[in-house]
Specification:
single chain; alpha+beta; YaeB-like fold; four-stranded antiparallel β-sheet; 4 strands; about 30% helix
Length: about 80
């Protein structure tokens, strides 16, 4: 039973992340600027959903999601 609860929670989290990412199709500039990536010159922004952060930038008519991570994870552990 506990395994099913974990799978249901994971499915719900994935659905929420996909919905948030899909929202960029209608409002690509809705995120907040990502200051840690400002020096890269691509205009990175981020969206938060729950404890997850979606990092992206807009290039022409494309939205490029570059990172998705748990905000409870220390940035030094990211491999990107």
């Amino acid at each position: 039973m506990a395994g099913n609860a974990s799978l249901e929670k994971a499915d719900k989290t994935i659905a929420e992340l996909l919905d948030k990412a899909d929202s960029l199709l209608e409002y690509p500039l809705r995120g907040i600027p990502e200051p840690a990536l400002a020096d890269l010159g691509k205009g990175y922004s981020s969206l938060i959903t729950g404890r997850y952060k979606i990092v992206y930038y807009v290039s022409g008519d494309e939205i490029r999601i570059t990172d998705l991570f748990d905000t409870k994870q220390h940035l030094s552990r990211m491999r990107g």
